[in-house]
Design brief:
This protein is an alpha/beta fold. It is built from eleven helices and six strands. A six-stranded parallel sheet has the order 1-6-5-2-3-4, sandwiched between helices. It is globular and about 50 Å long. The N and C termini lie far apart (43 Å).
Length: 328
């Protein structure tokens, strides 16, 4: 059972002064209603304005989001399971001393650090529409953690990082791997890129454990309207990872069409638990939020008729560049 993460656990990655500002009432009480320039400056310094404002219940959210990932990692460490899931995790934009991109903490980094102590080398894979910048930044100088992010990359698109040329620094050169996709990426394109670069990464790096961030904002129907993926793309990617038979931690992430995110993560839960994949034609069972699944009330996430800007040439060039970086 997951427990709320303690300050000591959170500061395994985050700075003490950030956690003090973020979580302790004496540091944050009434600041959202204050006209004090000092209060605003302090909140701005730690990223607690704009997209990451202070809100009621924030401490519980932060501690449990981190605690769930740490508990899942502990299950892998003690051998009670080979695959653990925590769909409330995957807050991949959080920085050491700053909230960012709706992420108040970076539970993914905390999970990787915990797994590192037992398994040595860890491969972190990010399937979110957005680059996993917070995780890459945390390990950019490390040769014990390889980060592989497959995401949309374009001028002005958040977080404006994650180009193919971002390969790591110092001892970490070659351990920050970024595969970028253009607007309209389909299941076939995603499957082709993931299959090629993930296999190359695991063969070159030989990790002892894997963490996969399964952000779903690339699904068709997401308000971003950039990728055109169905749940099958995520199922196929996770099945590739599970076939490696390594200790594997699956986390959640982005996704702003709640019904489609639930559809996708439900299928991933079934696959990760060793059960048969759930058919897209399967009816959604009766429950309090059934109306959210209208008009089909089934598990299908249908791709749209949007065009795909990813050409055979661009995909092959991207794969070749990434594999060259991995092998360099």
């Amino acid at each position: 059972e997951a427990a709320a993460a303690t300050d000591a656990e959170l500061t395994e990655f985050h700075s003490e002064e950030y956690i003090e500002c973020l979580l302790h009432p004496e540091a944050t009480s009434n600041v959202s209603d204050s006209d004090s320039d000092d209060d605003d400056d302090r909140l701005k310094r730690f990223g607690l304005l704009y997209d990451c404002p202070v809100f009621e219940g924030m401490e519980e959210h932060v501690r449990m989001a981190a605690g769930g990932t740490l508990a899942a990692a502990a299950c892998l460490i003690d051998g009670s399971t080979r695959v653990a899931m925590h769909w409330e995790g995957g807050r991949h934009h959080g920085q050491r001393s700053r909230a960012a991109g709706f992420c108040y903490i970076n539970d993914a980094v905390l999970g990787v650090l915990k797994l590192q102590a037992r398994f040595g080398k860890v491969l972190y894979i990010d399937l979110d529409l957005h680059h996993g910048d917070g995780v890459q930044d945390a390990f950019v100088y490390s040769n014990r953690v390889t980060t592989l992010s497959i995401h949309h990359y374009d001028r002005g698109f958040y977080p404006n990082t994650g180009g193919v040329a971002d390969e790591g620094k110092g001892h970490g050169v070659g351990h920050s791997i970024n595969a970028t996709l253009r607007r309209g990426a389909s299941d076939a394109v995603f499957r082709r890129v993931f299959g090629s670069v993930a296999s190359a990464a695991v063969e070159a790096f030989e990790p002892g454990a894997v963490v996969v961030q399964c952000g779903c904002d690339g699904l068709a129907g997401d308000p971003h309207r950039l990728f055109n993926l169905t749940g099958q793309a995520f199922v196929d990617a996770v099945q590739v990872v599970l076939a490696w038979r390594l200790p594997t931690l699956l986390l959640g992430g982005g996704g702003y069409n709640n019904a489609n995110v639930a559809r996708c993560w439900t299928r991933l839960t079934a696959v990760a638990a060793g059960e048969q994949d759930i058919s897209a034609s399967k009816d959604i069972p009766e429950h309090a939020y059934l109306n959210d699944y209208a008009p089909t009330f089934d598990m299908a996430i249908d791709a749209t008729l949007a065009g795909d800007d990813n050409t055979d040439d661009s995909v092959e060039a991207g794969i070749s560049a990434v594999i060259a970086a991995i092998k360099s």
